[in-house]
Amino acid sequence: MSAVPQLRALGGVIGLSAVLALTAVHPYSRQILSNNISYPLPKGTWRAIAIIFAILNLKNVPLVWHFRVFRSMLVQLIERQRRPFPPRALFLPLITKSAWTPLLELDYNLHKSNSTYFADLDVARAQLMLCLLRTGIQRLMKGEESTMVEETRRSGSVARYGVENHAQEALKGGGKFLIALGGISCHFKKEIKAYSGYEIWTRVLSWDRKWIYLVSHIVKRGLAKPEEYVLQTGRWGGRSTELRGNKEKETSEEARARRKEEWKSGIYATSVAKYVVKRGRITIPPELVLERSKLLPPRPPERKEDPISKPMLEGDENADQSMISVEAAQSMQDTSKKSAVLVNGAETSDMSSANATCDSTTSDEDGWDWEACEKKRLEGLKFAEMFAGLDALHDEFDGGVDGVLGSYVDLFW
């Protein structure tokens, strides 16, 4: 059915509902209905109907969204105590399952309304952020941020703004820690039908000096079966992660590429969001919090003074955006240089050589070191920078200097 007939049908339903409602509230109409409809309903019928309706739309009952958020956070507090978070799992997704799409989340096309995606994404992202940053925030609150005052001074923020006393006060306890959502974008691919289940796979996409970027894929429930559940020790994955021999590895890579094509048919939407960590007016770089959370491999000595890990004051962010892009480009250039090898006297670029370089400086048994982590971050930063560039659209508001089409209300006033 096209959009025009659907709108006509919707208008007819609304008009009929309005007539019935006005008829029901009129005393004379109620008297006629009472005299002519003699079939009595059992006692408590309307209460049972209301309870069933509330259960079928439980996600939309007042305060249930708050319960979902705090329950997810409580689950992560318990899970992190049971098993430590290995650094190699920094970019792995966290799955949040939704049982169904209730009636109150449907639009006039009878599928999940676009506006309701964001409430579910809030729950998924809150769970992942607590999982990632809980340890780092706790360590900073316990006083391990003392070195950040000197780092802030070296970064130049204090010298430019002359507020060293405020920086020390904020970092040493004068300001409260805050994790704030700075922006979100959602791109829709397929509809979610009424009372269909789905999952939200949320993971770290990248980070720069100010923002940590998350990507969420909303997919059909049961679309993919993970190979391993890192934080849930008693849960088995779908396939073994141990591969023996090149032939078996090639088969696994081919199967992964084939499955990736199959998964595309089950993706409903993809969302990108960015978060910032602050204490007072001080912006705490994500890399610093992740390092305090013990989620980053050891930094090489030549990368100790990277500006991406330095705190900064409010008003300093815009001045550092170009520096972020330069830093990303420089890091990409360094990575590409490390992948250059000499073959028969000629210089060529080989990704396998880059992987070999990473493996030669591993910091754990899984081959996860700083270079591997940085490579993954820069891969996501290509998408994150495009998303961050949308902030410039704030300047495109013109206040109607050339006029507007009209002004209308969306309800009654």
Your description of this structure?
Belongs to the lcsJ thioesterase family. Residues 294-314 are annotated as: Disordered. By secondary structure, this protein is of the alpha+beta class. It is built from 13 helices and 9 strands. It has helices spanning 3-25, 27-36, 45-56, 64-82, 117-144, 146-155, 157-161, 164-174, 246-263, 286-292, 321-338, 351-359, 370-388, and strands at residues 94-98, 177-188, 198-207, 211-220, 267-279, 282-284, 312-313, 340-343, 346-349. The strands form 2 sheets. Strands 1, 2, 3, 4, 5, 6 and 7 form a 7-stranded antiparallel sheet that branches. A two-stranded antiparallel ribbon has the order 8-9. The protein is globular, with a radius of gyration of 27 Å. It starts with a helix and ends in a 25-residue tail after the last helix.
